[in-house]
Amino acid sequence: MKSLYLKSAQDISLQRPMRGFTLLEVLVVVVIIAVLITFVSLSLGNNQHKVLEQEAQRLYALLKLTAHESISNTAEMGVYLGEDHYQFYRLYQGQWQVLDKDDVLSSHQLPDFIQLDVNVEGVDLPADVSVTDFINDNPQVLFFTDGELTPFNCILSLKSDRRVMYNIEGLLNGQLNLELNSQGSPL
Cα-atom radius of gyration of the chain, to the nearest Å? Predict the structure, then answer.
């Protein structure tokens, strides 16, 4: 009698095909997808912050190089700092020349998600002034052959998240400082 019972249970299981997934299988797949989405979103968010840090360090290093170039080459130099780009100049025979053929100090376009705010000698510069409007005039920040420079302050931040900012400050005595401001206070 026992064998009939087992045989009939086996017959029943063979007759009924499996349909769908168990609740446990569905939950495991949902958890895996949620974890993957979390990792992807975290890596994309951190990527913009990393690019922001790299751009701030790049601009800081180029400004320091410009200060040293001005002293060592005994040529006054300058920089235009726009909302989304910057460009370097050298004073040659009384005229400002754009350094567009220089490998290091050439014009640089910032990524679309980064904003550059500028304050020169206590005055916030308008963001709508373009390089073409500025070419016939002097650059905003000047680097003199005696090591002095025009006092300025520029802040690089993400357009979508102003809580993390990199502040580059230039003092009259030629000192340049780079600092992270994670409080998000504007210029």
Answer: 30
Element (H, E) at 68: helix 23-72
Superfamily of structural domain 26-181: minor pseudopilin epsh domain (3.55.40.10)
The token duo for 32 is 């895996």
Residues paired with residue 157 on neighbouring β-strands, in sequence order: 115, 165
Residues in contact with 129: Cβ distance below 8 Å, sequence separation at least 6, in sequence order: 82
Contact 149, 142 (CB under 8 A): yes
**pLDDT profile of the chain (187 residues), mean per 10:** 54 63 81 80 72 92 91 90 88 86 84 88 62 58 91 89 87 90 56
Residue type, 162: R
- C-beta separation of 71 from 77 below 8 A: no
Q: Are 98 and 107 in contact (CB under 8 A)?
A: yes
pTM of the predicted structure, to 2 decimals: 0.69
Do residues 124 and 131 touch, judged by C-beta distance below 8 A?
no
Strand ranges for 44-145 from DSSP E: 77-81, 85-92, 95-98, 108-109, 114-120, 123-124, 141-143
